[in-house]
């Protein structure tokens, strides 16, 4: 969990993700998370909402309760979200080139930044898909 926090995930979100990921079923109810983490239901709700926006967890109805499930391909999803974020940086930097002009020092820096992020984003997307295909092919057949 400490590594998740060090790399930018807020502490409560990291705690919830670790608990979901390490549960036998890959999912827990809000009540189970409240009990495990000794926090308020509101804290769990906020954390799950954040993790949902990142595409790392989903909610499933279980009678009147909701069960929060971590996706099997959680790390692929996290990597892909990061690649999309990088592409957004590229686009925003490119908009800055239009504002400042490509011939200005600021415009030139923004253009270099945009091109760097475009290449990085493409590489990240390709790497994620390559690894996902590799892991799918290496997964043993279920009996």
Automatic annotation (TrEMBL):
Domain HTH marR-type intervals: 21-66
Keywords: DNA-binding, Transcription, Transcription regulation
Highest taxon listed in the record's lineage: Bacteria
SUPFAM superfamilies assigned to the protein according to its UniProt record, in alphabetical order: Winged helix' DNA-binding domain
InterPro entries referenced in this protein's UniProt entry, alphabetically: HTH-GbsR_regulator, HTH_MarR-typ, WH-like_DNA-bd_sf, WH_DNA-bd_sf
PANTHER family: HTH-TYPE TRANSCRIPTIONAL REGULATOR MJ1563-RELATED (PTHR38465), HTH-TYPE TRANSCRIPTIONAL REGULATOR MMPR5 (PTHR38465:SF2)
Name used for this protein in its record: GbsR/MarR family transcriptional regulator
